[in-house]
Amino acid sequence: MNESSNTATRNSRDKILNTVHGNQPAPRELPPLPEGTPVAPGDLAPTFITALEAIGATAYIVSGFDRIATMLHEQFPGARRIVTGCPQLNAFAEAAAAAKGLDPHLLENVELAILPAHFGVAENGACWITETQMVERALPFIAQRLVLVIPHSSIVPNMHAAYDRIAALEAEAPANTYGFSTFIAGPSKTADIEQSLVLGAHGPISLTVFLLDEELSDAGYF
Amino acid sequence: MSGSNQKPLEVPEQSEGNEQGSPQWGEPKLSSDRTDFNALPEFAKLPKANSRHKQDHAALAAEFNKDEPRVDWHDETLWWVRQKRDKAAARVPEWELLRDTASRIKDNVLSNLSGYLRQFEEEATRNGITVHWAADANEHNEIVLSILSRHKIDKMVKSKSMLTEECHLNEFLHEKGIDVVDTDLGERVVQLAGEPPSHIVLPCIHLKKQEIGEIFHEHLGTPKGNADPQFLTHAARLHLREKFLTRRVALTGVNFAVAETGEFVVCTNEGNADMGAHLADVHIASMGIEKLIPQRRHLGVFLRLLTRSATGQPITTYSSHFRRPRQGQEMHIVLVDNGRSVHLGRKDFRNSLKCIRCAACFNTCPVYRRSGGHSYHTAVAGPIGSILSPNLDMKKYADLPFASTLCGSCSNVCPVKIDIHEQLYKWRQVIVQEGYAAAGKTAVMKTMNWVLSHPGVYHTAGKTGRWFMLNAPFTVKNGFNTWYRQRDMPTPPKQSFGDWYKKNKK
Question: What ipTM was assigned to the predicted interfaces of this complex?
Answer without folding.
Answer: 0.94
